[in-house]
Amino acid sequence: MKNFYITTAIPYVNAAPHIGFAMEAIQADAIARFKKQRGFEVRFQTGTDEHGVKIQKLADELGKNPKEIVDANAKKFENLREALDLTFDDFIQTSDQKKHWGGAQKMWQKLVAAGKLEKRKYKGMYCAGCEEFKSEKDLTEGRCPNHPNLKLEEVEEENWFFRLSDYSAQIQKLLESREVEILPHFRAKEFLNVVKEGLHDVSFSRSSETLKWGIPVPDDSTQTMYVWCDALTNYISALDYGSTALTTSENESAEFKKWWLDSEKVHVIGKDIVRFHAGIWLGMLLAAELPLPDKIYIHGFITSEGQKMSKSSGNVVDPIEFSQEWGSDALRYYLLSEIPNGKDGDFSKARFEEIYNSALANGLGNLVSRVVAMTLKIKNAKFKMQNSEKIGEREVAKMWEKIESAMSSGFDFRSVLAAISVLVEFANKFVTEKKPWELKDSEKVETLSALLEILRQISIALTPFLPTTAERIASSLGVSLEGDFEKLKKWGSAKEFKLSKTGILFPKR
66-78 vs 53-62: helix axis angle to the nearest 10? Predict the structure, then answer.
């Protein structure tokens, strides 16, 4: 069995989960379920980034311990598991001293041993929103493009710097050869233009007087780790890299060996942190002589009603509220099918309702309810596939071909759900035109058996993307979604359908 390790980025805990991260988590979950369905042993990880000046300032203002604040906020992200029907295996908090700090400090020591950390005096413009120093070319009219309302601070300190510039040529080669593959590929072209100009050295620490809330730099009590060696190392510290019980590279944990040394590795991230993952993180791993991720999948931003989301505009979309009102699968469907692959997209309530009613209520939901209802009206009949029944077999084969192509070429969820929708439309059209209820009993049973098989195939295809809906369809058919994938999706492999009533999958709104 092959191992597959997938992670989301770890969002900063100074605000509640937003719809953009909800999409990222759903995308990672869909990939994890897709791989698991195909026989991979999967580990899916998420978590929260919890150190930094912003949390420290907030704690000082509230008169609280920073740990109280991050634990309370982290719980909001962890609650996405139930709200969005996620299957993550681990949730890491970077303030967890037992689980995370040892790995970050071990990585720091690896960088020191490689001669890639050096202490320098530095003066520059610092964006508190990005927790990053900015150069002139990073700015738009003197402001950070990601946080235009925040005034940049001029900071002069002596910090430890990571010599990322030493790895520009090597990282360029890795990305051009796709040894580390950035998906979709147009995102790779964008970042390669940055790499070709030369990557810059990165500040890896702040004065411990300025930043008290963070991981202490090994062997330098005057400094605290600043973002990168702390946050990025979460992908391996969660695998017990740097565990206090394991002190040598020859004695790495079984988890680390399995999931980082012997696994296909995919990071799912937003477009605003590409250079941290495809630049800084790759440089760190190269310096530490550790394996690199295989793929970095990048999604775009989500606007709300055509505008950038902000509390002041009152257009922030709460993914938990939407999930509670409409159901997790409805939200998953919109985010996976409506947002272009790797590009920006919009979240509109009117468009959400339109998609819900057309694709889910009138499309998929209507197909399931009418086929099951027709079948239940026929008493004492056995519904099973016969070799002569070919209705929809060719269309099902086309659907699977498109799904496998879309996922293997770049996790194109939109194309996957479009392929499933084509089969739903075919079946609905067939029912409307052929009117099975008017056929003779023998023909009726054969025709409905084929339609039930189409529904079974749809439920298998939907499993990674709309898991609750897939299970409800399978349950109404009396079939299982478990087992060897290739045998499961074989046309007609269900021995018999044992129908039962099911509630309305997607009530019209």
Answer: 110
